[in-house]
Amino acid sequence: MISDESQEFKQECLWRAPELLRSCNLVGSKEGDVYSFGIILQEVFTADAPFGIETVTMGVECVIENIMDMEGQPFRPEFNVPESLKPVKDLAIRCWSELPHHRPLMANVKRDINEIAVQMGANGSLMDSLLRRMEQYANNLEKLVDEKTLELKEEKKKTEDLLDQILPRPVANQLKLGQRVTPDAFESVTVCFTDICGFTVLSSKSSPMQVVDLLNDLYSCFDDIIENYDVYKVETIGDSYMVVSGLPVRNGNMHAPEISRMSLNLLQAIDNVKINHLPEERLKLRIGLHSGPVCAGVVGIKMPRYCLFGDTVNTASRMESHGEECKIHISGETKIILDKHGSFTVTLRGNINIKGKGKMDTYWLLGEDTKGDQF
């Protein structure tokens, strides 16, 4: 039995004659060399590794055990070649005969393979023919490796692009490097929630496929718009669209103005989104904004999501749900930041009872005077 447990040695044993494997004879013999030459013929003319099919399906160790097994039919590599190469296969079978004295002498092997080379129209010596065949195999293998490498790079790029769309780029880069993404606390961000007014009634007049098409058109429009602002889309749930500014890259006190400008743009853009199956209907958007601290982190492994946590998120959602159609409802915290900026038109809505929050002074964001922009 073989004693060396290294993988390299086991691979080399695939060329070794059965009797040498059984006796652990590392010196070799002439008959063993003829056997090894037969394995090389299989390698060259099938353009595959020794026992290529068998090692893939069974493993190297199992193949070696089958070669050494003296019971039943001798275990040899599968050798599928075109009809024109059948003499090569017959020669290889003679070379790896189970009985060493039944194997041809090397001089006869050289004679036979030269005759085969002539029959195949090859010019030159035995070694020239083999070298040409091996060079062709190497070139084809190199080309195949290049093609597979290119395909792998393209698939990797697609995967990375998809990851960049699902998660913020800094977070995605950490995951690509195999690093653990630790949760991060942000002192001040602005969260925006949008909702389609009367979406339940609208859905009752539509088929599920029509609802999907409508939301796809709407959110594709929104996605194009938010690309122009320093914001990050957290997620879409049904007809709700959640966006934040100020993370994952902090931007000082610019998060409220960025979200406000984006929200004003969304209100304008909603008029251009048509409902193809209900041309008489018009979409009406309700938007809510709130500014404050949040904690952000990646949740999940199989389908990781970048999630925000904290009361700021809940309050922003309340601003949206307590708002009115075609209006932007903002909290006092967001107004304070916008007042510092100095270009936004804000009017008091009043002191209203917000579910889960109690009485709050809230405001309507009406627009922005770009001429009065201080920056």
For this structure, what is the CATH homologous superfamily of the largest domain? Nucleotide cyclase, GGDEF domain
User: Whole-number average pLDDT?
Assistant: 83
Distance between the termini: 83 Å
List low-confidence stretches.
none
Count of DSSP strands:
8
Can you tell me the overall shape? Answer: elongated
Cα Rg: 37 Å
The CATH topology assignment of the largest domain is: Alpha-Beta Plaits
Beta-strand percentage range: 15-25%
**Domain unit count:** 2
Order of H and E elements: HHHHHHHHHEHHEEHEEHEHEE
According to CATH, what is the class of the largest domain?
Alpha Beta
Q: Using the 3D structure, state the CATH architecture of the largest domain.
A: 2-Layer Sandwich
